[in-house]
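DATA SHEET
Item: assembly model
Revision: 1
Owner: S.N.
Input lines:
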Amino acid sequence: MTTLVFQPTRSSTTIGVVVAALMAMGVVMVFSTTASLETPAAARVALRDPAVKQAMFTALALLVVLATSMVPTEFWRLRGGSIWQPAVLLLLASIALCAVVLVPGVGTVRNGARRWLSLGSSAMGLGFQPSELAKLAVVIFLAAYGASRADRMRSFWRGLLPGMMIVGVLAALVGKEDFGTAAMIGAVGVAMLLTAGARWWQMGLCALPGVAGMVGLVLFEPYRMQRLMSFRNIWDDPLGKGYHQVQSLMTIASGGWWGLGLGNGVQKYGYLPEARTDFIFAIICEELGLIGGAAVIGLFLVLVWQGRRAMLNAPDGLRQLIAFGATLTIGMQAAMNIAVVTVSVPTKGISLPLVSAGGSGVIFLGALLGTLVSAAKRPVAVHTRGED
Amino acid sequence: MSLLIVALLALVGRLVFINTSQGAKLLARTYEQQRSVVPLPARRGLIVDAAGRIMAGTSLQLSVFADPKLMPDKQEAAADVGRILDVPAAELGQDLVAAGNRRFFVVRKKISEDQAAALKKARVGGIGVFEEPYRTYPLGSLASQVMGFVSSDGRGLGGIESQCEDWLRGEAGLKTIICDAGRRAFWLAEDGYQPPRDGYHVVLTIDAVIQAAAEREVQAAIEKYHAESGVAVVMDPRSGAILALANVPTFDPNHFGDYADGSQWRYRNRAITDPIEPGSTFKPFIAAWALAEKATRLGEVFDCESGAWRDGARLLHDHHPYASLSFEDILAKSSNIGMAKIGKRLGNKKMQAALKAFGFGSKSGIDLDGEAAGIVRPPHQWNSFSTTSIPMGQEVGVTPLQLARAFCVFANGGMLVEPFVIRAVLASDGGVVQEHRPPAPKRALSKSIVATMKDTVLTGVVNHGTGTTAALTHYQVFGKTGTAQIPKQGGGGYVPDAYVSSFIGAAPADDPRLVVVVCITKPKKSIGYYGGTVAAPAARQILASALAYMQVPQEREGPTEYAGLTGGD
């Protein structure tokens, strides 16, 4: 009889190693960034300690990578119209959670945005952002959708529109509180549909309301406008509106070429806001220098490159689309985060994937990357002689 | 996907751009934000006496400061602090309000350690305790006019403190610390420590023991004769080193602010700043010059006119009338008429040369600020009155220091030395920064004239003249008394019944080790006012205790007459 065995490829192995490296870097940097003048490093063993939490989540995320990398890609393939299929359920669950989090009293507000669902006791400070799940769901579902309807994607009504509606619904739900992630979901969704075979001109028509919606979000939420404005002239008000960006640039510059040395950064002691989450890249540059920052970008480049290889070598549409979507998601998020930290684009609440402190982020990204690793493996038919 | 790769590569470029084109500006801003420069005060150098005893040192005191900006309620803070420091809260509250928005306001200086601990425990917002250096003078008022004092902001005022300010002050260091956003320091910046250079120590020639004896004896004379003030100078005749410079009444530099009520004159080092008309203590210098010029000789007898002599328009008197006196007895008995006749023999020109040779009329060159040159009229202003006035110590103004210096000529074989009080300047590790190098002394008199003056004339004053009260059992003292009237300010005669009683002398006669000048101003005439009565006993006591302290070999056997350092009387 014949069984299908999934052999690791250079891409799948490299991606796995790079993911582990980035996660390890994250734990180390979160530990450094959350250094406290009161608590000596050796005493930082409490479960509440952000670095300990990050280490535990990262360990968990590694297990998730391992587990999802062993789930055959076929698992996600759509067969027929039933909703009782993994990809559909994943999508529906994420839509539901993204909707629930917006309900006051259910979702928890942190840093002025209702993005969190609290889990368990608040003592552990566990929380979970449905938007992270949405990023995973949109890639897996659209890949499954595009692969199952490859022949119909050129059709507007039967191929593109349903896909766009799903992207739109998710982006809108997430965008209410998290503009950056919504923009990313939208961009990844559009790119995946195009890759799946959608026509450019149809997409253009379709994207119009989406673009209009984004402009609307910018105009109706004044803080977004402020962010956009302050980005242009951070030096007009370096202690007020431009503070965050100015501090980020100062943090990067104080590292120079080789950095102050791991743990020697100063900006984390109250100067640079969100140092351990969205702006951890600046701390990496401060402590490990331009060389360290470039190395982190280099790891993401390797990841993107290998993801691209996996896509090009994919034996079928589902794997190709998963490789494309997952790679794009992680690469784009990294690029957007670093662009924000280096004040190349306005501030958005986007973390550095796998590195920034944050539980749900690293776990769901782990799932996405595990799925990518799985898709990058080569299916080989093995003939075995059965006993019967 | 390729776009993504390009974007990531572009971000590496962006990092390079931030570090190169904006790096310096950003780094400067970062340093300004993170670093705080703390001055490290240098410790002011010590002033020590000739034996290394600390006369001025620096200690740390605990003081309370306030940052009124951090106070939620100033009156409440004043109440809390007032309770601990035991000062009225209302007064503190007023101070705090007056301090306005100053970030550092010193509330109280020099609090006790218990109070500091209580304040720290009370944790009053905006109130802190800090250590600050302050100058302390462990020997109190001893030699205070030489020492001077230090203002509350650490600058030397007066005396050695001001004169050696540059040596004593040192150089403050800097500490560059890195702070968190809450301004809590957590580590030192690289190259952030520039240690202070502590001030140099100044070693004086003053010996605290001799100084104390001099101040004690002058004080005793002032008290006994109800005098206004007094000074004493003790000198090493061989080197010119000043061993004591006493100005009584004195002041306590630890509390220099207590003299603001019009007694600031006490700060003045009167022994070097205030010239007096010396009177008879001036006679030996003119007499010696007359010997040197062969205007007279030892044993020559002068007609002393039985106490009154008219010389032209001038009527001269002696305190005690004598029919005739030998040259040496003119000094022993201190005859004005005899000296006037010697002056007439010498003439103005030669007397001018004598004054110059003994250093009168010009600064002695002592290394202390504010020295007076004294008053010696320029030659063209001398007249026939000068010829008889100057030999008896009138018409001139000299400082007690000038008298002491001039008398050293008789005690060191004829040389005019330059007095000094700063023996050396030492670095904080003890290395010598500067050492006093006396200039070569000038010869003022020949050895033989000096020997005659010392062994016959001036010894006679003490052994059977006006200065017998200066005589010591174990040592041969030689010297001269003086009882001078105090001239009215602006000229025109003398203040009635106002005298400066003085004695200049040295011992032991064989090998003189000490020259002493004592001048007591305005003793009460009814109790006593002759130099031999008022000043000579004080000089004797100073010599007795100093010679014993210095363990100068005794010249003669005899019962111990003075208990030495424990204070005989």
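QC remark: The domain at 37-71+105-204 of chain B is CATH 3.90.1310.10 (Penicillin-binding protein 2a (Domain 2)).
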